Amino acid sequence: MGRRQQLKVLTAQLHVSHSQISTYLACSLKYRYRYVERRPLERRGIALPFGIAVHNAVEHYYRSLKETGSPAPLNYLTELFSDTLAQGVGATDVPIVFNKALPDIDQAHDRGCKMLEVFVADQRGSTDKIIGVELPLSAPLRGTDGQDTGFQLIGIIDLLVEDEKGRLTLADLKTAAKSKNQKDVDADLQLSGYACLLETNGYILPNAPVEGRLDVLMKTKSPKLVRYHSRRTVDERRRFKKIAAHVLHSIDAGVFIPNRGWLCTDCEYADACAVWHMT
Ligand code: SF4
CB 3.0 to 4.6 Å from 161: which of 14, 128, 219, 253, for a disulfide? Predict the structure, then answer.
């Protein structure tokens, strides 16, 4: 089942994802425009279709490795990347906003192909066993008091691997222009949300920690792959559930406030936001 179909199944019920929670926390007005009003986009940053295209190629690499024992070859991955990027950029009828790392479509294309070269070279010698690729999971979201919020927490885990000692690691692939700070990785809500899903679906024991990893493909002139490790304990999973429950309460109460910052640079709703206080 493809990612789109998986999402369709997961979103058939009342649900919330880590990405909705993170969007709300970063800028709740943006959340309202995107998820409550489903407002048409005013523009689209190149980062999103670019990230989707890289992600799609990497997914095929792992899927092929899991299903056939051999990874998809680099030329197949770069072709897939090119097609997905062209589709993503062509499918939208709003202006695409390029940025310093990806200043135009040709440079975005070349940069993505180089990043995939780096990714493939980095995989050689890995002995991890692949347990899941694009693993779709859902579970009832309960607050820390155990009360059902009525929402399903949903997520699709990029990669779940097991090392020689049987330890599981959940990994998520990112593309980024800047390196990350370990403190931000340790506070990353996506890893915490996925750890909750692994626990509720029986992949890990209720009191056991789970290893998390962000594989960050850097969009720099000389691309590189940086791996950040961060464990998720019961305490962090509990914290995630409490944050999620509070976000749901705030949405229910209609609390949506603009939070100006770096997200505004290529915000899809900047025009609406500029006059938000006038209405
Ligand atoms: S422009 Fe900035 S403050 Fe306004 S909705 Fe977008 S991200 Fe939020």
Answer: 128
Q: Using alpha carbons, list the distances in angstroms from residue 47 to 22, 54, 68, 253.
A: 17, 10, 31, 32
CA distances for 193 relative to 20, 21, 93, 269, 277, angstroms = 11, 10, 33, 27, 33
Q: Are 241 and 142 in contact (CB under 8 A)?
A: yes
Distance, CA 55 to ligand 1 centroid (Å)? 26
Question: 89 is written with which tokens?
Answer: 């950029």
Determine the 3-state secondary structure of 216 from DSSP: strand
Q: How far is the CA of 178 from the centre of ligand 1 (A)?
A: 21
Walk me through the domains of the chain, giving residue ranges and CATH numbers: 3-267 (3.90.320)
CB-CB contact of 161 with 168 (8 Å): yes
Whether the predicted pLDDT of 243 surpasses 90: yes
How many angstroms is it from 257 CA to the middle of ligand 1? Answer: 9
Of the candidates 98, 197, 50, 79, the residue with the CA atom closest to the CA atom of residue 138: 197
**Ligand 1 binding site (Cβ under 6 Å of any ligand atom):** 27, 29-30, 258-260, 263-264, 267, 269-270, 273
Tens digits of per-residue pLDDT, 46-82? Answer: 999 999 999 999 999 999 999 999 999 999 999 999 9
Which residue among 269, 276, 277 has the greatest number of ligand 1 atoms within 8 angstroms of its CB, and so is best to mutate? Answer: 269
Atom of ligand 1 nearest to the CA of 27: 8
pLDDT band at 124 (very low <50, low <70, confident <90, very high): confident
How would residue 278 be classed by pLDDT, with cut points 50, 70 and 90? very high
